[in-house]
């Protein structure tokens, strides 16, 4: 069985939310098992720009960046600085790892979260939306991801 991972970064509020999904591929694209590997959040307030990389590094732990199949980022509307930092990190990782980066707006993430019983965290919902797009064969590039500052 081939195992890969996907990561979601939600940086549009004072709380940093990260989630990793494990994707088990047995024989083909249609026989995949997707599950949340781990998730965590930190209330960072205005310290996001200072602590984001340390939190991300600690959260990734022993996983290798080359094990990631795709990445998802919340693009806003939200905190200007938090959104911008998250999008820059996501685009940089996507470019360097040559993996799809799914930019999802916060309204779509919140709607997906509220459709689950019990409601999913924002990072879990972000990851679920990106996974559905990845499953459908939609492969955006890091260049396609731009932050939203107003509707």
Keywords:
single chain, 151 residues, alpha/beta, five-stranded mixed β-sheet, 4 helices
Description of the molecule:
The chain is of the alpha/beta class. The chain contains four helices and five strands. The chain has helices spanning 48-60, 80-97, 106-114, 122-135, and strands at residues 2-10, 15-25, 32-43, 68-74, 101-104. Strand 2 and strand 3 (32-43) form a beta hairpin. It is globular, with a radius of gyration of 14 Å. The mean pLDDT is 91.
> How would a textbook summarize the main sheet?
5 strands, mixed
Global shape: globular
Element-by-element helix/strand order: EEEHEHEHH
User: What is the total tally of β strands?
Assistant: 5
Into which percent range does the helicity of residues fall? 25-40%
Would you summarize the structure shown here?
This protein has 4 helices and 5 strands, in the order E-E-E-H-E-H-E-H-H. It is an alpha/beta fold and 151 residues long.
Record the SSE blueprint.
Elements: E1 2-10, E2 15-25, E3 32-43, H1 48-60, E4 68-74, H2 80-97, E5 101-104, H3 106-114, H4 122-135
Parallel strand pairs: 1-4, 4-5
Antiparallel strand pairs: 1-2, 2-3
Helix pairs in contact: 3-4
């Amino acid at each position: 069985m081939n195992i890969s991972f996907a990561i979601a970064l939600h940086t549009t509020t004072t709380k940093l939310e990260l989630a990793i999904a494990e994707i088990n591929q047995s024989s083909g694209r249609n026989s995949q098992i997707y599950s949340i590997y781990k998730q965590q959040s930190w209330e960072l307030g205005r310290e996001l720009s200072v602590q984001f990389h340390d939190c991300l590094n600690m959260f990734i732990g022993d996983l290798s960046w080359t094990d990631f199949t795709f990445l998802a980022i919340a693009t806003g509307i939200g905190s200007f600085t938090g959104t911008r930092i998250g999008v820059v990190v996501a685009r940089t990782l996507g470019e360097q790892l040559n993996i799809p980066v799914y930019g999802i707006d916060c309204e779509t993430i919140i709607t997906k979260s509220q459709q689950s019983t019990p409601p999913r965290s924002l990072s879990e919902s972000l990851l679920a939306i990106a996974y559905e797009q990845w499953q459908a064969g939609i492969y955006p590039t890091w260049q396609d991801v731009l932050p939203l500052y107003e509707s």
